């Protein structure tokens, strides 16, 4: 920190990451006009290794490690992440100081420009879908076994350029709705997948602000960004993932929603699944719990409960298989 009024934000260098960091910057500037919030951007391991599918790299901190190193050595004061990229166990001395209000967490189908198809079920047999996500591939293979899936890496603009290349192999991509909306590319969304076809990634659609756990000033400052309901939903999701010992590159999907009960209280419902890579087996579980009184701990307990049901049904063997494939 160069002065007490200057607070440095760390971000990845991609266009989407910088849009997200600038969003946080603008919110903080509006709340604290006497402070300045410059952004420092950097490249992460995940940005550099583009030749391999994400799940085969085997590193849990693909898009966060370099940012956390900058945080540790105090070259930045806080870091903005897509929460889905942030491992469920943080490095010692780090904390998620704020989780912003979640945007649409679902996944979207984006069809090649010039094609007349409007949804995945209209695509001809053998159509190539571009995605690097084993979660997306496994769920789509279960419902659409005649489609072909091919890895596609790079930032969102790069992937869209690969899709629209007339000589390229892809008929469509699967991308996060929130990312497309943040880049003002809503017009490219051909279909938003319902939960009956695809559950989303843990934390998808939410932004997280990470800082040093002992930096009380920054923790208090960024508390203005916190959205309680998003924190509760994502805490349950992350607890499930942590219990299953999964990273961001595993075939685990979730869905969370608040349910109004007849006696006027709210319960959080968590639906989770673990899938074989080839889509041949999908294990599902769900539970709901009143979390308004005990808050985060109740949400964490809900995540552990649903993970426990998945483990009882055989989820561990699927995840162990994935570890062997990755070696």
What would you note in describing this structure?
Belongs to the HMBS family. With 327 residues, the chain is of the alpha/beta class. It contains eleven helices and 13 strands. The N and C termini lie far apart (41 Å).
CATH-defined superfamily of the largest domain? Periplasmic binding protein-like II
Strand content: 15-25%
Shape: globular
Number of helices: 11
- Which oligomeric form is depicted? single chain
Give the mean pLDDT.
90
CATH class of the largest domain: Alpha Beta
Largest sheet entry: 5 strands, mixed
CATH topology of the largest domain, by name, is D-Maltodextrin-Binding Protein, domain 2
DSSP, total strands: 13
Short précis:
This protein is of the alpha/beta class and 327 residues long. Helices cover 34% and strands 22% of the residues. It is an enzyme of class 2 (transferase).
């Amino acid at each position: 920190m160069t002065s007490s009024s200057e607070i440095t934000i760390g971000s990845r260098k991609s266009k989407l990451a910088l849009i997200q960091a600038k969003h946080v910057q603008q919110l903080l500037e509006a709340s604290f006009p006497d402070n300045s919030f410059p952004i420092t951007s950097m490249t992460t391991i995940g940005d550099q290794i583009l030749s391999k599918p994400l799940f085969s790299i085997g590193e849990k901190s693909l898009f966060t490690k370099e940012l956390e190193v900058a945080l540790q050595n105090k070259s930045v004061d806080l870091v903005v992440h897509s929460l889905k990229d942030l491992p469920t166990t943080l490095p010692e001395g780090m904390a998620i100081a704020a989780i912003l209000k979640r945007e649409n967490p679902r996944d979207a189908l984006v069809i090649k420009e010039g094609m007349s198809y409007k949804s995945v079920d209209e695509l001809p047999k053998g159509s190539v879908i571009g995605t690097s996500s084993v979660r997306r591939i496994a769920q789509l293979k279960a419902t659409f076994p005649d489609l072909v899936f091919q890895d596609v890496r790079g930032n969102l603009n790069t992937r869209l350029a690969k899709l629209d290349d007339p000589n390229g192999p892809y008929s469509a991509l699967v991308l996060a709705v929130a990312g497309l909306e943040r880049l003002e590319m809503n017009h490219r969304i051909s279909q938003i997948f319902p939960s009956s076809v695809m559950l989303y990634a843990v934390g998808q659609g939410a932004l997280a602000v990470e800082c040093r756990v002992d930096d009380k000033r920054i923790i208090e400052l960024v508390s203005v960004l916190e959205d309680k309901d998003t924190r509760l939903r994502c805490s349950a999701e992350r607890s499930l993932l942590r219990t299953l010992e999964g990273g961001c590159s595993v075939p685990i999907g979730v869905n969370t929603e608040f349910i109004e009960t007849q006696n006027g209280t709210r319960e959080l419902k968590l639906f989770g699944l673990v899938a074989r890579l080839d889509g041949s087996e999908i294990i599902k579980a769900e539970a709901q719990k009143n979390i308004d009184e005990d808050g985060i701990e109740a949400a964490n307990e809900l995540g552990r409960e649903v993970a426990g049901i998945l483990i009882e049904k055989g989820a561990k063997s699927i995840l162990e298989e994935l570890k062997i494939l990755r070696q």
